[in-house]
Amino acid sequence: MKKLLIANRGEIACRIIRTARRMGIATVAVYSEADAHAPHVAAADEAVLIGPAPARESYLLPEKILEAARATGADAIHPGYGFLSENADFAEAVRKAGLIFVGPSDQAIRVMGLKDSAKTKMKTAGVPVTPGYMGDDQSLPRLERMAEMIGYPLLIKAVAGGGGKGMRPVHAKAEFTEALLAAKREAAASFGHDGVMLEKLIATPRHVEVQIFGDSHGNIVHLFERDCSLQRRHQKVIEEAPAPGLSGELRHVLGIAAVTAGHAIGYENAGTVEFILDMDDRDEAGDPKFYFMEMNTRLQVEHPVTEAITGQDLVEWQIRIARGEMLPLMQDAIECHGHAVEARLYAENPDRGFLPSTGTLSRLAFGEGARIDTGVEQGGEVTVHYDPMIAKVITHAPTRDEALAKLVAALDRTVVEGVTTNRGFLARLAAHPAFVGGEIDTGFIARHEVSLFESAPPPPSVLAAAAAQWAAATPAQGPFAHRFRLNLPPVSPAAFWEADGTEHRFEIAPDGVRFEGAAQAPGRDTAIIAIEGGVEARRRGQSWRFLSENPGWAGHSAAGPADGQILAPMPGKLIGLFVKPGDKVQAGDRLAVLEAMKMEHRLTAPFDGTVEAVSSEAGAQVADGMLLVTLARAGEPG
After folding, report:
1. Does the active-site annotation cover 400?
2. What is the pTM of this model?
3. Which of 110, 298, 344, 371 is catalytic?
4. Residue ranges of domains in the chain
5. Which fold does the domain 131-200 belong to in CATH?
6. Confidence class of residue 477 from pLDDT cuts 50, 70 and 90?
Protein backbone atom coordinates (compact mmCIF):
# COMPACT_ATOMS: atom_id res chain seq x y z
CA MET A 1 0.00 0.00 0.00
CA LYS A 2 1.64 3.19 -1.20
CA LYS A 3 -1.20 5.66 -1.67
CA LEU A 4 -4.44 5.64 0.33
CA LEU A 5 -7.61 7.44 -0.78
CA ILE A 6 -9.98 8.31 2.06
CA ALA A 7 -13.57 8.07 0.83
CA ASN A 8 -14.88 10.35 3.55
CA ARG A 9 -14.67 13.82 5.05
CA GLY A 10 -14.46 15.65 8.36
CA GLU A 11 -12.80 14.37 11.51
CA ILE A 12 -12.53 10.73 10.44
CA ALA A 13 -10.73 11.71 7.21
CA CYS A 14 -8.29 13.84 9.25
CA ARG A 15 -7.88 10.96 11.71
CA ILE A 16 -6.99 8.44 8.99
CA ILE A 17 -4.61 10.85 7.28
CA ARG A 18 -2.60 11.29 10.52
CA THR A 19 -1.97 7.56 10.87
CA ALA A 20 -1.24 7.03 7.17
CA ARG A 21 1.34 9.84 7.23
CA ARG A 22 3.03 8.31 10.28
CA MET A 23 3.20 4.99 8.41
CA GLY A 24 4.76 6.63 5.35
CA ILE A 25 1.67 6.20 3.15
CA ALA A 26 0.67 9.02 0.78
CA THR A 27 -2.95 10.17 1.06
CA VAL A 28 -5.68 11.40 -1.27
CA ALA A 29 -8.70 13.36 -0.04
CA VAL A 30 -11.98 13.66 -1.89
CA TYR A 31 -14.24 16.63 -1.37
CA SER A 32 -17.49 18.21 -2.43
CA GLU A 33 -17.86 21.82 -3.50
CA ALA A 34 -18.95 22.67 0.06
CA ASP A 35 -15.72 21.18 1.46
CA ALA A 36 -13.24 22.89 -0.85
CA HIS A 37 -11.51 24.59 2.09
CA ALA A 38 -12.07 21.86 4.69
CA PRO A 39 -9.17 20.73 6.94
CA HIS A 40 -9.13 17.18 5.54
CA VAL A 41 -8.48 18.59 2.07
CA ALA A 42 -5.52 20.63 3.28
CA ALA A 43 -4.15 17.73 5.36
CA ALA A 44 -3.92 15.21 2.48
CA ASP A 45 -1.10 15.02 -0.06
CA GLU A 46 -3.61 15.29 -2.92
CA ALA A 47 -7.28 16.18 -3.19
CA VAL A 48 -9.95 15.57 -5.84
CA LEU A 49 -13.26 17.37 -6.29
CA ILE A 50 -16.04 14.80 -6.68
CA GLY A 51 -19.24 16.82 -6.97
CA PRO A 52 -21.74 19.28 -5.49
CA ALA A 53 -22.48 19.69 -1.78
CA PRO A 54 -25.28 17.09 -1.37
CA ALA A 55 -23.74 13.77 -0.31
CA ARG A 56 -25.89 11.85 -2.79
CA GLU A 57 -24.15 13.81 -5.57
CA SER A 58 -20.63 13.41 -4.20
CA TYR A 59 -19.57 11.27 -1.23
CA LEU A 60 -22.24 8.63 -1.87
CA LEU A 61 -21.29 7.99 -5.53
CA PRO A 62 -18.97 4.95 -5.80
CA GLU A 63 -18.05 5.78 -9.39
CA LYS A 64 -16.79 9.21 -8.36
CA ILE A 65 -14.59 7.67 -5.66
CA LEU A 66 -13.16 5.06 -7.98
CA GLU A 67 -12.55 7.66 -10.68
CA ALA A 68 -10.59 9.75 -8.17
CA ALA A 69 -8.53 6.70 -7.18
CA ARG A 70 -7.67 5.96 -10.79
CA ALA A 71 -6.78 9.58 -11.53
CA THR A 72 -4.37 9.82 -8.59
CA GLY A 73 -2.89 6.33 -8.74
CA ALA A 74 -4.20 5.34 -5.32
CA ASP A 75 -3.86 1.62 -4.64
CA ALA A 76 -6.13 1.49 -1.56
CA ILE A 77 -9.35 3.06 -0.27
CA HIS A 78 -10.38 3.60 3.34
CA PRO A 79 -14.12 4.28 3.72
CA GLY A 80 -14.04 5.73 7.27
CA TYR A 81 -17.49 5.54 8.85
CA GLY A 82 -20.83 6.62 7.44
CA PHE A 83 -21.34 7.28 3.71
CA LEU A 84 -20.12 4.17 1.81
CA SER A 85 -18.38 2.45 4.71
CA GLU A 86 -20.97 -0.34 4.99
CA ASN A 87 -21.94 -0.50 1.32
CA ALA A 88 -21.17 -4.04 0.16
CA ASP A 89 -21.43 -3.12 -3.52
CA PHE A 90 -18.81 -0.42 -3.03
CA ALA A 91 -16.43 -2.78 -1.22
CA GLU A 92 -16.86 -5.30 -4.03
CA ALA A 93 -16.31 -2.64 -6.73
CA VAL A 94 -13.11 -1.45 -5.03
CA ARG A 95 -11.65 -4.94 -5.01
CA LYS A 96 -12.78 -5.67 -8.56
CA ALA A 97 -10.92 -2.52 -9.62
CA GLY A 98 -7.75 -4.11 -8.28
CA LEU A 99 -7.58 -1.86 -5.22
CA ILE A 100 -7.24 -2.67 -1.52
CA PHE A 101 -10.39 -2.03 0.50
CA VAL A 102 -9.51 -1.18 4.10
CA GLY A 103 -12.39 -3.06 5.64
CA PRO A 104 -14.14 -6.44 5.69
CA SER A 105 -15.28 -8.54 2.76
CA ASP A 106 -18.40 -7.51 0.86
CA GLN A 107 -19.96 -10.85 1.91
CA ALA A 108 -19.54 -9.99 5.61
CA ILE A 109 -20.97 -6.52 5.03
CA ARG A 110 -24.00 -8.02 3.26
CA VAL A 111 -24.73 -10.51 6.03
CA MET A 112 -24.38 -8.00 8.84
CA GLY A 113 -25.72 -4.99 6.92
CA LEU A 114 -29.32 -6.10 7.33
CA LYS A 115 -30.25 -6.55 10.96
CA ASP A 116 -32.68 -9.39 10.26
CA SER A 117 -30.17 -11.56 8.39
CA ALA A 118 -27.51 -10.69 10.97
CA LYS A 119 -29.71 -11.89 13.82
CA THR A 120 -30.54 -15.08 11.97
CA LYS A 121 -26.81 -15.76 11.49
CA MET A 122 -26.05 -15.01 15.15
CA LYS A 123 -28.87 -17.21 16.39
CA THR A 124 -27.46 -20.09 14.36
CA ALA A 125 -24.01 -19.44 15.87
CA GLY A 126 -25.40 -19.58 19.41
CA VAL A 127 -25.19 -15.88 20.18
CA PRO A 128 -28.30 -14.73 22.12
CA VAL A 129 -30.67 -12.49 20.09
CA THR A 130 -33.59 -10.30 21.18
CA PRO A 131 -37.05 -11.91 20.66
CA GLY A 132 -38.93 -10.42 17.72
CA TYR A 133 -39.94 -10.65 14.05
CA MET A 134 -37.37 -10.62 11.23
CA GLY A 135 -39.44 -11.90 8.32
CA ASP A 136 -39.54 -10.93 4.65
CA ASP A 137 -43.29 -10.30 4.69
CA GLN A 138 -43.46 -6.53 5.22
CA SER A 139 -47.18 -6.11 4.65
CA LEU A 140 -49.09 -4.04 7.18
CA PRO A 141 -51.42 -6.89 8.23
CA ARG A 142 -48.47 -9.24 8.81
CA LEU A 143 -46.53 -6.66 10.84
CA GLU A 144 -49.62 -5.80 12.88
CA ARG A 145 -50.18 -9.49 13.69
CA MET A 146 -46.55 -9.98 14.69
CA ALA A 147 -46.65 -6.87 16.85
CA GLU A 148 -49.61 -8.37 18.70
CA MET A 149 -47.70 -11.62 19.22
CA ILE A 150 -44.56 -9.86 20.52
CA GLY A 151 -46.63 -7.56 22.72
CA TYR A 152 -46.22 -3.93 23.63
CA PRO A 153 -44.00 -2.08 24.21
CA LEU A 154 -41.94 -3.01 21.16
CA LEU A 155 -39.35 -1.43 18.90
CA ILE A 156 -39.59 -0.91 15.13
CA LYS A 157 -36.10 -0.90 13.57
CA ALA A 158 -34.93 -0.41 10.02
CA VAL A 159 -33.11 -3.55 8.91
CA ALA A 160 -30.52 -1.40 7.13
CA GLY A 161 -28.37 1.38 8.56
CA GLY A 162 -28.23 2.70 12.10
CA GLY A 163 -27.80 5.91 14.09
CA GLY A 164 -31.41 5.79 15.28
CA LYS A 165 -32.79 6.43 11.80
CA GLY A 166 -35.80 4.33 10.93
CA MET A 167 -36.31 3.43 14.59
CA ARG A 168 -39.50 4.00 16.58
CA PRO A 169 -40.56 2.74 20.02
CA VAL A 170 -44.26 1.82 20.19
CA HIS A 171 -46.04 1.60 23.54
CA ALA A 172 -49.60 0.88 22.43
CA LYS A 173 -51.43 -0.67 19.48
CA ALA A 174 -52.98 2.68 18.51
CA GLU A 175 -49.51 4.11 17.84
CA PHE A 176 -48.26 1.27 15.67
CA THR A 177 -49.38 2.19 12.12
CA GLU A 178 -48.18 5.81 12.23
CA ALA A 179 -44.86 4.81 13.81
CA LEU A 180 -44.37 2.04 11.23
CA LEU A 181 -44.98 4.32 8.25
CA ALA A 182 -42.68 7.00 9.67
CA ALA A 183 -39.93 4.44 10.29
CA LYS A 184 -40.25 3.09 6.75
CA ARG A 185 -40.12 6.58 5.20
CA GLU A 186 -37.05 7.50 7.22
CA ALA A 187 -35.33 4.19 6.43
CA ALA A 188 -36.00 4.58 2.71
CA ALA A 189 -34.66 8.15 2.72
CA SER A 190 -31.56 7.25 4.74
CA PHE A 191 -30.62 3.80 3.41
CA GLY A 192 -32.61 3.22 0.22
CA HIS A 193 -34.32 0.26 1.91
CA ASP A 194 -37.58 0.52 3.85
CA GLY A 195 -37.56 -2.96 5.41
CA VAL A 196 -38.11 -3.09 9.16
CA MET A 197 -38.00 -5.64 11.94
CA LEU A 198 -39.88 -5.77 15.22
CA GLU A 199 -38.40 -6.72 18.55
CA LYS A 200 -39.22 -6.73 22.23
CA LEU A 201 -38.56 -3.33 23.77
CA ILE A 202 -36.35 -3.80 26.80
CA ALA A 203 -37.46 -1.32 29.46
CA THR A 204 -34.10 -0.64 31.10
CA PRO A 205 -31.35 -1.45 28.60
CA ARG A 206 -27.65 -0.78 28.51
CA HIS A 207 -25.85 -0.55 25.19
CA VAL A 208 -22.50 -2.34 25.42
CA GLU A 209 -20.36 -3.10 22.38
CA VAL A 210 -17.18 -5.09 21.84
CA GLN A 211 -14.39 -4.06 19.45
CA ILE A 212 -13.11 -7.00 17.40
CA PHE A 213 -10.42 -7.42 14.73
CA GLY A 214 -9.90 -10.31 12.36
CA ASP A 215 -7.10 -11.00 9.87
CA SER A 216 -6.91 -13.02 6.67
CA HIS A 217 -5.12 -15.83 8.54
CA GLY A 218 -8.19 -16.81 10.56
CA ASN A 219 -7.32 -14.98 13.77
CA ILE A 220 -9.93 -12.89 15.61
CA VAL A 221 -9.44 -10.99 18.86
CA HIS A 222 -11.39 -8.47 20.90
CA LEU A 223 -10.08 -5.22 22.38
CA PHE A 224 -12.52 -5.11 25.29
CA GLU A 225 -15.88 -3.43 25.53
CA ARG A 226 -17.32 0.09 25.45
CA ASP A 227 -20.48 1.42 27.07
CA CYS A 228 -22.57 3.63 24.78
CA SER A 229 -25.72 3.84 26.88
CA LEU A 230 -25.90 7.62 27.20
CA GLN A 231 -28.08 8.33 24.18
CA ARG A 232 -30.79 10.67 23.01
CA ARG A 233 -33.09 9.66 20.17
CA HIS A 234 -31.03 6.44 19.87
CA GLN A 235 -27.88 8.41 19.04
CA LYS A 236 -24.81 8.11 21.23
CA VAL A 237 -23.76 11.15 23.26
CA ILE A 238 -21.04 9.94 25.66
CA GLU A 239 -19.13 6.68 25.35
CA GLU A 240 -16.64 5.08 27.70
CA ALA A 241 -14.32 2.12 28.00
CA PRO A 242 -14.27 -0.24 29.70
CA ALA A 243 -17.99 -0.48 30.50
CA PRO A 244 -18.42 0.36 34.20
CA GLY A 245 -20.08 -1.91 36.71
CA LEU A 246 -19.80 -5.23 34.86
CA SER A 247 -18.53 -8.36 36.55
CA GLY A 248 -15.35 -9.97 35.30
CA GLU A 249 -17.38 -13.00 34.21
CA LEU A 250 -19.79 -10.92 32.13
CA ARG A 251 -16.92 -9.05 30.45
CA HIS A 252 -15.33 -12.38 29.57
CA VAL A 253 -18.56 -13.83 28.17
CA LEU A 254 -19.27 -10.71 26.09
CA GLY A 255 -15.78 -10.91 24.59
CA ILE A 256 -16.26 -14.59 23.71
CA ALA A 257 -19.68 -13.88 22.18
CA ALA A 258 -18.25 -11.08 20.01
CA VAL A 259 -15.36 -13.23 18.78
CA THR A 260 -17.84 -16.06 18.09
CA ALA A 261 -19.89 -13.65 15.99
CA GLY A 262 -16.78 -12.75 14.01
CA HIS A 263 -15.83 -16.37 13.36
CA ALA A 264 -19.41 -17.14 12.26
CA ILE A 265 -18.95 -14.93 9.20
CA GLY A 266 -15.17 -15.26 8.70
CA TYR A 267 -14.69 -11.63 9.64
CA GLU A 268 -11.63 -9.57 8.68
CA ASN A 269 -10.53 -6.07 9.75
CA ALA A 270 -12.26 -3.82 12.33
CA GLY A 271 -15.78 -4.52 13.49
CA THR A 272 -17.98 -3.82 16.48
CA VAL A 273 -20.45 -6.30 17.90
CA GLU A 274 -23.21 -4.47 19.75
CA PHE A 275 -25.16 -6.01 22.61
CA ILE A 276 -28.12 -4.86 24.65
CA LEU A 277 -28.10 -5.70 28.36
CA ASP A 278 -31.46 -6.14 30.08
CA MET A 279 -30.95 -4.57 33.51
CA ASP A 280 -34.34 -5.88 34.68
CA ASP A 281 -33.66 -9.54 33.83
CA ARG A 282 -30.65 -11.20 35.43
CA ASP A 283 -29.12 -14.65 35.49
CA GLU A 284 -28.39 -16.78 38.55
CA ALA A 285 -25.07 -14.99 39.10
CA GLY A 286 -26.85 -11.63 39.17
CA ASP A 287 -25.51 -10.44 35.82
CA PRO A 288 -27.95 -8.86 33.36
CA LYS A 289 -28.94 -11.02 30.40
CA PHE A 290 -27.56 -9.80 27.08
CA TYR A 291 -28.64 -10.05 23.46
CA PHE A 292 -26.94 -9.43 20.13
CA MET A 293 -28.23 -6.19 18.64
CA GLU A 294 -26.19 -5.58 15.48
CA MET A 295 -22.70 -5.53 14.07
CA ASN A 296 -21.05 -2.48 12.55
CA THR A 297 -18.67 -3.64 9.84
CA ARG A 298 -16.42 -0.59 10.04
CA LEU A 299 -14.50 1.63 12.42
CA GLN A 300 -16.75 3.23 15.04
CA VAL A 301 -17.02 6.92 15.87
CA GLU A 302 -16.10 6.05 19.47
CA HIS A 303 -12.97 4.04 18.64
CA PRO A 304 -10.64 6.55 20.43
CA VAL A 305 -11.69 5.31 23.89
CA THR A 306 -10.54 1.82 22.93
CA GLU A 307 -7.27 3.28 21.65
CA ALA A 308 -6.83 5.10 24.95
CA ILE A 309 -7.24 2.04 27.20
CA THR A 310 -5.21 -0.34 24.99
CA GLY A 311 -2.51 2.02 23.69
CA GLN A 312 -3.17 0.76 20.15
CA ASP A 313 -3.80 2.73 16.93
CA LEU A 314 -6.87 1.03 15.44
CA VAL A 315 -6.46 2.69 12.05
CA GLU A 316 -2.94 1.27 11.86
CA TRP A 317 -4.36 -2.15 12.68
CA GLN A 318 -6.87 -1.72 9.85
CA ILE A 319 -4.17 -0.82 7.35
CA ARG A 320 -1.84 -3.65 8.37
CA ILE A 321 -4.62 -6.23 8.14
CA ALA A 322 -5.73 -4.88 4.75
CA ARG A 323 -2.13 -5.37 3.54
CA GLY A 324 -2.41 -9.05 4.45
CA GLU A 325 -0.45 -8.93 7.69
CA MET A 326 -1.38 -10.90 10.79
CA LEU A 327 -2.97 -9.18 13.76
CA PRO A 328 -0.42 -6.95 15.54
CA LEU A 329 -1.26 -8.63 18.87
CA MET A 330 -2.92 -11.86 19.93
CA GLN A 331 -5.55 -11.93 22.68
CA ASP A 332 -3.25 -12.62 25.64
CA ALA A 333 -1.03 -9.65 24.74
CA ILE A 334 -3.85 -7.08 24.62
CA GLU A 335 -4.08 -5.18 27.89
CA CYS A 336 -6.51 -2.66 29.34
CA HIS A 337 -5.18 0.34 31.25
CA GLY A 338 -7.28 2.94 33.04
CA HIS A 339 -10.54 4.43 31.87
CA ALA A 340 -11.45 6.61 28.87
CA VAL A 341 -14.48 8.75 28.07
CA GLU A 342 -15.56 10.44 24.83
CA ALA A 343 -18.12 13.21 24.35
CA ARG A 344 -19.51 14.13 20.94
CA LEU A 345 -19.50 17.91 20.58
CA TYR A 346 -22.23 18.83 18.09
CA ALA A 347 -23.56 22.03 16.56
CA GLU A 348 -27.04 21.52 17.95
CA ASN A 349 -29.41 23.22 20.36
CA PRO A 350 -30.35 21.09 23.41
CA ASP A 351 -33.03 23.63 24.34
CA ARG A 352 -34.77 23.07 20.99
CA GLY A 353 -34.86 19.29 21.04
CA PHE A 354 -31.21 19.00 19.92
CA LEU A 355 -32.00 20.41 16.49
CA PRO A 356 -28.86 21.01 14.41
CA SER A 357 -27.42 24.50 14.29
CA THR A 358 -25.68 25.93 11.23
CA GLY A 359 -23.37 28.87 10.69
CA THR A 360 -19.76 30.06 10.66
CA LEU A 361 -17.42 29.01 13.46
CA SER A 362 -16.34 32.52 14.35
CA ARG A 363 -14.40 31.29 17.38
CA LEU A 364 -13.15 27.79 18.16
CA ALA A 365 -10.79 26.79 20.96
CA PHE A 366 -10.59 23.53 22.89
CA GLY A 367 -9.81 22.94 26.56
CA GLU A 368 -6.54 21.35 27.63
CA GLY A 369 -6.09 17.86 28.99
CA ALA A 370 -8.08 16.06 26.30
CA ARG A 371 -7.54 14.43 22.95
CA ILE A 372 -9.48 16.36 20.32
CA ASP A 373 -10.51 14.66 17.07
CA THR A 374 -12.00 17.28 14.79
CA GLY A 375 -12.51 18.02 11.12
CA VAL A 376 -13.37 21.71 11.39
CA GLU A 377 -11.48 24.88 12.22
CA GLN A 378 -12.17 28.45 13.19
CA GLY A 379 -13.75 30.30 10.28
CA GLY A 380 -15.23 27.12 8.80
CA GLU A 381 -18.90 26.49 8.07
CA VAL A 382 -21.31 24.05 9.67
CA THR A 383 -23.82 23.39 6.88
CA VAL A 384 -27.08 21.51 6.50
CA HIS A 385 -25.44 19.03 4.14
CA TYR A 386 -23.52 16.88 6.64
CA ASP A 387 -23.46 15.60 10.20
CA PRO A 388 -23.06 18.63 12.51
CA MET A 389 -20.26 17.14 14.61
CA ILE A 390 -17.64 19.70 15.63
CA ALA A 391 -15.31 17.41 17.55
CA LYS A 392 -14.87 14.38 19.75
CA VAL A 393 -13.45 15.25 23.17
CA ILE A 394 -11.64 12.26 24.72
CA THR A 395 -10.04 11.95 28.16
CA HIS A 396 -8.10 9.10 29.75
CA ALA A 397 -7.06 8.59 33.38
CA PRO A 398 -6.27 5.80 35.84
CA THR A 399 -9.85 5.81 37.18
CA ARG A 400 -13.32 6.55 35.84
CA ASP A 401 -13.87 9.42 38.28
CA GLU A 402 -10.65 11.09 37.13
CA ALA A 403 -11.47 10.60 33.44
CA LEU A 404 -14.92 12.16 33.92
CA ALA A 405 -13.49 15.09 35.88
CA LYS A 406 -10.96 15.74 33.10
CA LEU A 407 -13.74 15.60 30.51
CA VAL A 408 -15.89 18.12 32.39
CA ALA A 409 -12.91 20.47 32.79
CA ALA A 410 -12.04 20.23 29.08
CA LEU A 411 -15.64 20.93 28.05
CA ASP A 412 -15.94 23.87 30.44
CA ARG A 413 -12.88 25.41 28.79
CA THR A 414 -13.96 24.78 25.21
CA VAL A 415 -15.18 27.83 23.31
CA VAL A 416 -17.39 27.66 20.23
CA GLU A 417 -19.03 30.77 18.82
CA GLY A 418 -21.10 31.24 15.68
CA VAL A 419 -23.29 28.19 16.22
CA THR A 420 -25.21 26.77 19.17
CA THR A 421 -23.64 23.62 20.64
CA ASN A 422 -24.33 20.90 23.18
CA ARG A 423 -21.11 21.71 25.07
CA GLY A 424 -22.77 22.73 28.33
CA PHE A 425 -25.22 19.84 28.17
CA LEU A 426 -22.35 17.36 27.75
CA ALA A 427 -20.50 18.79 30.74
CA ARG A 428 -23.62 18.67 32.92
CA LEU A 429 -24.21 15.10 31.80
CA ALA A 430 -20.64 13.98 32.55
CA ALA A 431 -20.77 15.70 35.95
CA HIS A 432 -24.24 14.45 36.93
CA PRO A 433 -24.01 12.71 40.33
CA ALA A 434 -26.14 9.76 39.19
CA PHE A 435 -23.96 9.13 36.13
CA VAL A 436 -20.75 9.54 38.10
CA GLY A 437 -22.22 7.10 40.62
CA GLY A 438 -22.73 4.44 37.95
CA GLU A 439 -26.45 4.79 37.15
CA ILE A 440 -26.26 3.99 33.45
CA ASP A 441 -28.87 2.95 30.90
CA THR A 442 -30.27 4.31 27.65
CA GLY A 443 -33.11 6.08 29.46
CA PHE A 444 -30.78 8.15 31.63
CA ILE A 445 -31.12 11.47 29.74
CA ALA A 446 -34.92 11.32 29.58
CA ARG A 447 -35.15 10.31 33.24
CA HIS A 448 -32.92 13.16 34.43
CA GLU A 449 -34.08 15.72 31.91
CA VAL A 450 -35.17 18.29 34.52
CA SER A 451 -31.85 18.33 36.37
CA LEU A 452 -29.85 18.27 33.12
CA PHE A 453 -31.62 21.37 31.81
CA GLU A 454 -32.30 23.35 34.96
CA SER A 455 -30.28 26.51 35.56
CA ALA A 456 -28.94 27.53 38.96
CA PRO A 457 -27.91 30.95 40.31
CA PRO A 458 -24.15 31.51 40.37
CA PRO A 459 -22.62 30.42 43.70
CA PRO A 460 -20.33 32.88 45.55
CA SER A 461 -17.13 31.16 44.41
CA VAL A 462 -18.21 31.52 40.76
CA LEU A 463 -19.12 35.16 41.26
CA ALA A 464 -15.72 35.78 42.83
CA ALA A 465 -13.88 34.07 39.96
CA ALA A 466 -15.85 36.04 37.38
CA ALA A 467 -15.36 39.31 39.26
CA ALA A 468 -11.61 38.77 39.58
CA GLN A 469 -11.25 38.12 35.86
CA TRP A 470 -13.60 40.99 35.00
CA ALA A 471 -11.65 43.36 37.26
CA ALA A 472 -8.35 42.37 35.67
CA ALA A 473 -9.71 43.23 32.22
CA THR A 474 -11.75 46.32 33.21
CA PRO A 475 -9.84 49.36 34.56
CA ALA A 476 -11.43 51.45 37.29
CA GLN A 477 -13.18 54.50 35.86
CA GLY A 478 -14.66 57.82 37.06
CA PRO A 479 -13.95 60.19 39.96
CA PHE A 480 -15.13 57.66 42.53
CA ALA A 481 -13.19 54.73 41.07
CA HIS A 482 -11.36 54.22 44.36
CA ARG A 483 -12.79 54.41 47.87
CA PHE A 484 -10.21 55.17 50.57
CA ARG A 485 -10.51 53.67 54.06
CA LEU A 486 -8.71 54.89 57.18
CA ASN A 487 -5.56 52.82 57.77
CA LEU A 488 -6.73 50.32 55.14
CA PRO A 489 -5.84 49.84 51.45
CA PRO A 490 -8.24 51.53 49.01
CA VAL A 491 -10.97 49.50 47.30
CA SER A 492 -12.71 49.97 43.95
CA PRO A 493 -16.49 49.58 43.86
CA ALA A 494 -17.74 47.73 40.78
CA ALA A 495 -20.73 45.90 39.40
CA PHE A 496 -21.72 43.65 36.55
CA TRP A 497 -25.01 42.25 35.31
CA GLU A 498 -26.36 38.90 34.23
CA ALA A 499 -28.26 38.66 30.95
CA ASP A 500 -31.60 38.90 32.77
CA GLY A 501 -30.62 42.18 34.40
CA THR A 502 -29.59 40.77 37.79
CA GLU A 503 -26.98 43.10 39.28
CA HIS A 504 -23.98 41.98 41.34
CA ARG A 505 -22.11 44.68 43.26
CA PHE A 506 -18.66 44.01 44.67
CA GLU A 507 -15.42 45.68 45.70
CA ILE A 508 -11.99 45.09 44.29
CA ALA A 509 -9.32 45.16 47.01
CA PRO A 510 -5.64 44.21 47.07
CA ASP A 511 -6.52 41.04 48.96
CA GLY A 512 -9.11 39.97 46.43
CA VAL A 513 -12.77 40.49 45.59
CA ARG A 514 -15.26 41.44 48.30
CA PHE A 515 -18.99 40.79 48.16
CA GLU A 516 -20.96 42.56 50.89
CA GLY A 517 -17.68 43.43 52.58
CA ALA A 518 -16.43 39.82 52.88
CA ALA A 519 -13.59 38.40 50.81
CA GLN A 520 -14.58 35.39 48.72
CA ALA A 521 -12.11 32.92 47.24
CA PRO A 522 -12.61 32.22 43.52
CA GLY A 523 -13.61 28.64 42.74
CA ARG A 524 -10.71 26.64 41.34
CA ASP A 525 -13.05 24.52 39.24
CA THR A 526 -14.50 27.57 37.49
CA ALA A 527 -13.46 28.37 33.91
CA ILE A 528 -13.64 32.04 32.91
CA ILE A 529 -14.03 32.84 29.21
CA ALA A 530 -13.67 36.38 27.85
CA ILE A 531 -16.68 37.50 25.78
CA GLU A 532 -17.64 40.75 24.16
CA GLY A 533 -18.68 43.18 26.90
CA GLY A 534 -17.87 40.91 29.82
CA VAL A 535 -16.97 37.38 30.90
CA GLU A 536 -18.62 33.97 30.95
CA ALA A 537 -18.14 31.73 33.98
CA ARG A 538 -18.49 27.96 33.58
CA ARG A 539 -18.65 25.28 36.22
CA ARG A 540 -19.61 21.65 35.54
CA GLY A 541 -21.63 22.58 32.48
CA GLN A 542 -23.47 25.52 34.02
CA SER A 543 -22.75 28.88 32.38
CA TRP A 544 -23.31 32.44 33.57
CA ARG A 545 -22.62 35.58 31.54
CA PHE A 546 -21.64 38.76 33.38
CA LEU A 547 -21.78 41.98 31.39
CA SER A 548 -20.19 45.33 32.15
CA GLU A 549 -23.40 47.15 31.20
CA ASN A 550 -26.99 46.45 32.21
CA PRO A 551 -28.56 44.75 29.19
CA GLY A 552 -31.89 46.38 30.04
CA TRP A 553 -33.79 43.12 29.88
CA ALA A 554 -37.50 43.87 29.60
CA GLY A 555 -38.84 40.36 30.03
CA HIS A 556 -40.27 40.14 26.52
CA SER A 557 -39.88 37.03 24.39
CA ALA A 558 -39.99 36.59 20.66
CA ALA A 559 -43.00 35.11 18.99
CA GLY A 560 -43.01 31.35 19.09
CA PRO A 561 -45.12 28.30 19.94
CA ALA A 562 -46.55 29.92 23.08
CA ASP A 563 -47.97 32.68 20.85
CA GLY A 564 -49.32 30.20 18.33
CA GLN A 565 -46.63 30.75 15.71
CA ILE A 566 -45.24 27.41 14.56
CA LEU A 567 -41.86 28.06 12.97
CA ALA A 568 -39.55 25.76 11.03
CA PRO A 569 -36.91 24.70 13.61
CA MET A 570 -34.28 24.33 10.88
CA PRO A 571 -33.95 24.34 7.07
CA GLY A 572 -35.58 21.33 5.42
CA LYS A 573 -38.37 19.89 3.31
CA LEU A 574 -41.96 19.96 4.55
CA ILE A 575 -42.97 16.39 3.75
CA GLY A 576 -46.33 16.53 5.51
CA LEU A 577 -48.85 19.26 6.33
CA PHE A 578 -51.90 17.96 8.17
CA VAL A 579 -54.03 21.02 8.94
CA LYS A 580 -55.82 23.81 7.10
CA PRO A 581 -57.28 27.14 8.21
CA GLY A 582 -60.30 26.66 10.45
CA ASP A 583 -59.28 23.23 11.77
CA LYS A 584 -59.69 22.61 15.50
CA VAL A 585 -56.61 21.09 17.17
CA GLN A 586 -55.71 19.85 20.61
CA ALA A 587 -52.36 20.16 22.36
CA GLY A 588 -50.02 17.53 20.95
CA ASP A 589 -51.85 17.08 17.66
CA ARG A 590 -49.60 16.64 14.64
CA LEU A 591 -49.47 19.76 12.47
CA ALA A 592 -46.61 19.06 10.07
CA VAL A 593 -43.53 16.88 9.52
CA LEU A 594 -40.22 18.41 8.45
CA GLU A 595 -37.44 16.32 6.93
CA ALA A 596 -33.94 17.61 7.58
CA MET A 597 -30.59 15.81 7.61
CA LYS A 598 -32.48 12.60 6.74
CA MET A 599 -34.45 12.73 9.99
CA GLU A 600 -38.14 13.51 10.41
CA HIS A 601 -39.10 16.23 12.88
CA ARG A 602 -42.73 16.22 14.04
CA LEU A 603 -44.28 19.65 14.72
CA THR A 604 -47.24 19.59 17.11
CA ALA A 605 -49.81 21.97 18.52
CA PRO A 606 -48.61 23.62 21.75
CA PHE A 607 -52.17 24.15 23.03
CA ASP A 608 -55.85 23.58 22.19
CA GLY A 609 -57.04 25.98 19.53
CA THR A 610 -57.92 26.78 15.94
CA VAL A 611 -55.70 27.01 12.87
CA GLU A 612 -55.76 30.64 11.76
CA ALA A 613 -53.39 30.39 8.81
CA VAL A 614 -51.11 27.98 6.96
CA SER A 615 -48.10 29.68 5.39
CA SER A 616 -46.56 26.84 3.38
CA GLU A 617 -47.47 23.62 1.59
CA ALA A 618 -46.37 19.99 1.59
CA GLY A 619 -43.26 19.41 -0.48
CA ALA A 620 -41.91 22.93 -0.01
CA GLN A 621 -38.35 23.69 1.02
CA VAL A 622 -38.43 25.93 4.09
CA ALA A 623 -35.82 28.07 5.79
CA ASP A 624 -34.90 28.09 9.47
CA GLY A 625 -37.44 30.17 11.39
CA MET A 626 -39.98 30.33 8.56
CA LEU A 627 -43.59 30.67 9.75
CA LEU A 628 -45.54 27.53 8.86
CA VAL A 629 -48.78 27.56 10.86
CA THR A 630 -50.53 30.17 13.02
CA LEU A 631 -52.87 29.04 15.83
CA ALA A 632 -55.36 30.87 18.02
CA ARG A 633 -56.00 29.55 21.51
CA ALA A 634 -59.36 28.00 22.22
CA GLY A 635 -61.76 30.72 23.37
CA GLU A 636 -59.79 33.55 21.73
CA PRO A 637 -61.24 35.44 18.75
CA GLY A 638 -59.80 34.37 15.39
Report:
1. no
2. 0.82
3. 298
4. 3-102, 131-200, 205-453, 460-547, 561-633
5. Dna Ligase; domain 1 (3.30.1490)
6. very low
